[in-house]
Specification:
81% of the residues lie in helices and 0% in strands. It is mainly α. Helix 1 runs antiparallel to helix 2. The longest helix is centred in the C-terminal third of the chain and has 26 residues.
């Protein structure tokens, strides 16, 4: 076993453990910190795969800017008591289950349509150049890229609805 494989295994285990920590802890701040650890572990995984640009973007955008936004949202939201939260979530369970099934079906559909390449065969060139990433996103993986844009659009619409409801 070489050092790269050991490092990849350790970072993968850290990423999985911190992802479980995001959903397992009760405190929103602890969940956000677990998410930061997860993002940094993912950046380390990108580094072991020689995708330097993706690792830099992972640290700058996700572990930096997005996590600051998440922490501010957690701090500014007045969640109230747990009983009120349970009442709000139980009334919307059907919609959540339906949307989860649809999202899962879209993910399965996307995974089955994308060809799995062996490492070094048709993947990103060593170093993860910006040109190769752009070509892959907008030529080879247009459908998954558009699915991400729809998910982001749904998140923005949800944030606007929550903000309007809070103002009223």
């Amino acid at each position: 076993m070489n050092l790269e494989l050991v490092l990849f295994t350790i970072l993968g285990a850290l990423a999985i453990g911190s992802a479980i920590g995001v959903i397992a802890v009760r405190s929103p701040i602890s969940a956000a910190m677990s998410l930061v650890v997860h993002f940094i572990a993912l950046a380390g995984l990108y580094l072991t795969l020689n995708a330097m640009f993706m690792a830099a973007i992972q640290v700058l955008v996700y572990a930096g800017a997005i996590m600051v936004l998440v922490v501010f949202v957690i701090m500014l939201l007045n969640l109230g008591s747990e009983e009120k939260l349970r009442e709000r979530f139980t009334s919307r369970q059907g919609v959540g289950i339906t949307m989860s099934i649809l999202l899962g079906a879209a993910i399965v559909f996307t995974i089955t349509r994308v060809a799995f390449n062996a490492p070094g065969e048709g993947g990103l060139p060593s170093g993860g150049s910006v040109q190769a990433i752009g070509k892959a996103l907008f030529v080879d993986y247009v459908y998954p890229f558009e699915m991400v844009s729809l998910i982001l659009l749904a998140a923005v619409v949800g944030a606007v609805v929550l903000a309007k409801r809070h103002v009223e």
